[in-house]
DNA sequence: CACTCTATCTCGGCT
DNA sequence: AGCCGAGGTAGAGTG
C-alpha cells in the first residue's frame, strides 16, 4: 500500500488473496485477480466456463468482469449494483456475486490465484464526446443548405402518430419535408421508419402536395437504396461534424 | 516470470513498463497497466478523457480496454484486430492503438504507471450456454402441444420473401401457422416482423384460409399487445428451458 | 469481404 | 421502478 492506493500479491495463498479482496472492497478499490478459475452463471441465461487462466475485475460499484485472452467483451459478467461475497472452501477461493431484478448469480472458483491487485481508480467525470447524432442535427440546423438550397427547418423532434421526427421543415417551394438522421451507414430499417413518418404526416397534414422524406446519413446499404427508390424517398449523404 | 506465465512490476519506470509491454505482447500475454493516464479516441466518434487512475487491458487478439472504477463497459476501447505501438515520449508512456475499416485510433498517455502485469490467459473454448432462443425452439419441437393441442411443426427456418420463419407448421385443422420466437419480452418490432411473414405466406401459399401468426415469448409490451390485436395475430407465453 | 441480425446486449431517457 | 429505444453497439452467421 502507498499513496497511490496500490496493493498487490504474487502467488498469494487463498487466505492472502481473500484478505486483499475484502480490504480492497471496503476501501472502494478495483480488484483484479489473475489465476486459474472456473465460472458459473445463472440468471437471464445460464452458462458454465471450464477452468482456465482468467483475469477477474471487480469494481466498487458492484460490476464484475471475467476476461479471457480474447474478445473485447468479458466472457462472463454482472452489471453494476451487485453484491460480492468471497470465501475459501474446498481448497478454492470462491467469489460469489448476486443481484436481483432480475435474479442472477455469478460464481467464480479459483483453484489458484497467480496475482492479485487492489487499485484505487478514479471516475470518468470528464469524458467528452463528439460525432453523435446530436452533432449531425446541429450541423444541419447551423446550415440547412447542406440538405439542399432553400431548405428551412421548422421543428426538431416534431411529434407524429408514428413517433418523433428528427427534423421537420419545408423546401424552397414550401413543401413539407421530413428528415430522418442517422450518424452512420444505414440499412432498410431506417428507410421503413422514414416511410412511416411520411405516410403519417401525409395523412395528418392532408395538404394537396406529397410530403417529402429525406434520409440523412453518411451512406446507405444497397438494399436500403433500393427501398428508398421504391418508396419515392430521397437520400442526402452527410456525416456528423467531428470537433477536436 | 514463472511456469504460469506471470510477469509483474510495481512502480516501474516508463522504460521498464515499456519492456514488459513489448515482451508481453510478443509472448501473447494479456497486459494490464494500472496508472494515471489520459485517453484520446478518434474514429467513429471522438472523445477525450482527462487524466485519472485507470486500468488498461491489452489482449493478444488486439483488443484494448480502458476501465475506470465504475461501469461494466470500458470508458474507452478498441475491438480485436488492432495493432498497438508503445514508446516513451515527453516523460509519458504512450500506448497508441489503431485499426482500419473503419479508421480509428486510441491514444493512452501514462504520466505514471503504478503497476504492470503480463499474464498468459487461456481462451474460453468451453463456454456452454442454455436459455437461448435455440433452447426455446427445442422446447417447442420436443413438445409442440406447448403452443396448442394439435399443433404440428413442419419446418424450421423456412425461407420466405420476408426472410426465414422460425417455425412453420399446421394446426389441428391443417391451417398454416407461423411461429416467431423470442427468448425475452418483446416490443412492437417483433409483431411487425411476424406480420410480414404472415402477409408474405398468405400470398405465397394462396390457400383459401388465412395463415395464423403466433408470437412466442415470455411476455409482450403493452404496445405490442395492441398491435397484435390490430393485426389479428396471436400470442403464446413461453420461456426458454433452463437446463442446469 | 461486406452485410445482416441477434444479444445474459448495455445504457440512458422517459412514462 | 419499469418500459422503450439507441449504440463508437459487439459478435456471429451468411451470401
Count, helices of chain A? 4
User: Could you tell me the radius of gyration of chain A in angstroms?
Assistant: 27 Å
Distance between the first and last residues' Cα of chain A: 39 Å
Mean pLDDT of chain A: 88
Please report the total strand number of chain A as a whole number.
Answer: 14
Main beta-sheet annotation of chain A: 8 strands, antiparallel
Give the oligomeric state: homodimer
Structural class by helix and strand composition of chain A: alpha+beta
Helix content of chain A: 10-25%
H/E element sequence of chain A: EHEEEEEEEEHEEEHEHE
Low-confidence regions of chain A? none
Tell me the fraction of residues in β-strands of chain A, as a range: 35-45%
State the shape of chain A: elongated
Which pair of protein chains has the largest interface, and what are the residue counts? Answer: A-B, 64 and 65 residues
Topology:
The structure is a homodimer of 244-residue chains.
Chain A (H helix, E strand, L loop, with lengths): L5 E5 L3 H14 L2 E13 L3 E13 L5 E4 L8 E3 L4 E7 L2 E8 L4 E16 L8 E3 L2 H10 L9 E9 L2 E8 L5 E6 L6 H18 L6 E6 L4 H10 L2 E4 L7
Parallel strand pairs in A: 12-13, 13-14
Antiparallel strand pairs in A: 1-8, 2-3, 2-8, 3-4, 4-5, 6-7, 7-8, 10-11, 11-12
The structure holds a DNA duplex (15 and 15 nucleotides).
Amino acid at each position: 500500500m502507498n499513496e497511490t492506493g496500490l496493493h498487490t500479491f504474487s502467488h498469494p495463498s487463498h487466505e492472502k488473496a481473500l484478505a486483499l479482496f475484502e480490504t480492497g472492497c471496503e476501501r472502494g478499490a478495483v480488484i483484479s485477480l489473475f489465476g486459474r478459475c472456473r465460472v458459473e452463471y445463472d440468471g437471464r441465461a445460464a452458462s458454465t466456463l471450464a477452468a482456465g487462466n482468467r483475469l477477474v475485475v471487480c469494481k466498487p460499484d458492484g460490476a464484475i468482469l471475467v476476461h479471457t485472452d480474447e474478445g473485447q467483451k468479458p466472457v462472463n459478467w454482472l452489471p453494476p449494483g451487485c453484491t460480492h461475497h468471497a470465501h475459501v472452501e474446498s481448497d478454492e477461493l470462491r467469489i460469489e456475486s448476486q443481484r436481483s431484478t432480475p435474479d442472477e448469480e455469478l460464481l467464480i472458483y479459483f483453484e489458484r490465484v497467480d496475482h492479485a491487485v487492489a487499485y484505487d481508480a478514479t471516475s470518468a467525470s470528464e469524458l467528452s464526446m463528439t460525432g453523435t447524432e446530436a452533432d449531425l442535427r446541429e450541423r444541419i440546423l447551423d446550415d440547412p443548405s447542406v440538405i439542399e438550397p432553400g431548405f428551412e427547418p421548422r421543428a426538431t423532434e416534431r411529434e407524429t402518430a408514428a413517433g418523433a421526427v428528427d427534423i421537420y421543415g419545408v423546401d424552397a417551394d414550401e413543401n413539407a419535408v421530413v428528415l430522418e438522421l442517422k450518424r452512420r451507414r444505414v440499412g432498410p430499417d431506417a428507410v421503413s421508419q422514414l416511410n412511416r413518418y411520411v405516410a403519417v404526416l401525409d395523412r395528418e397534414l392532408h395538404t394537396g402536395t406529397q410530403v417529402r422524406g429525406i434520409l440523412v446519413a453518411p451512406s446507405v446499404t444497397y438494399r436500403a437504396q433500393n427501398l428508398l427508390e421504391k418508396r419515392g424517398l430521397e437520400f442526402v449523404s452527410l456525416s456528423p461534424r467531428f470537433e477536436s
